[in-house]
Specification:
Layout: H1 2-31, H2 34-49, H3 52-62, H4 67-93, H5 97-104, H6 109-142, H7 161-170, H8 172-176
Helix pairs in contact: 1-2, 1-4, 1-6, 2-4, 3-4, 4-6, 5-6
């Protein structure tokens, strides 16, 4: 049961980190001017173009390995999806009639963002978060160089899956007759 709690915590916190950073980058680049948009989107492109396992190795080399570091490395890998969704929503909604009307009535930018644009941008972000949540804990196994010293101390769901896959590759009869092999 402890492995399930660890896996769910890793997934939720990693998605939370990715959503928070992506939301911040998307809001600034979607609502602000063209200069900040280009800068932030190039940052997102750099994050997306850099393989997640290499960033995990970089974090492990610079910081002390652990589960928290795995969550941060996985969360950073989730940032581009959330940033692009948020930016797209803001670009679409900032010119809609209800936002233009609120702006014409004198609403400050903070109010426009917080009360009019952001609530209408959240539904796709919630869907993205629920789609990424199951991907958070399997990525921890791939980001295992960041937690190599703590692998025995923290059980994780799916820790034995690679061994089972290897068994299926080497024992072809097990694929077709799984009950023929007894343990």
């Amino acid at each position: 049961m402890r492995g399930t709690v660890t896996s769910i915590a890793v997934g939720v916190i990693a998605v939370g980190i990715g959503a928070a950073l992506g939301l911040l980058i998307g809001i600034v680049s979607g609502y602000a001017g063209a200069c900040s948009t280009k800068g932030f989107m190039r940052l997102v492109d750099a994050i997306q173009g850099f393989p997640a396992i290499l960033s995990a190795l970089l974090f492990a080399a610079v910081f002390t390995p652990g589960i928290a570091l795995s969550m941060v490395a996985i969360g950073i890998a989730f940032v581009p999806a959330f940033a692009r969704l948020t930016r797209a929503g803001f670009l679409e909604l900032r010119e809609r009639e209800f936002v233009v009307a609120a702006r014409a009535l004198g609403a400050p930018d903070r109010r426009l963002v917080a009360r009019h644009i952001l609530p209408n941008t959240l539904p796709p972000l919630i869907v993205q978060a629920t789609n990424e949540l199951p991907g958070g804990h399997p990525r921890r196994r791939r980001a295992s160089p960041t937690s190599a010293r703590h692998a025995a101390a923290a059980p994780v769901v799916g820790a034995h899956a690679p061994g089972g896959a290897e068994l299926l590759v080497h024992d072809r009869g097990l694929r077709y007759f799984p009950e023929a092999r007894s343990r």
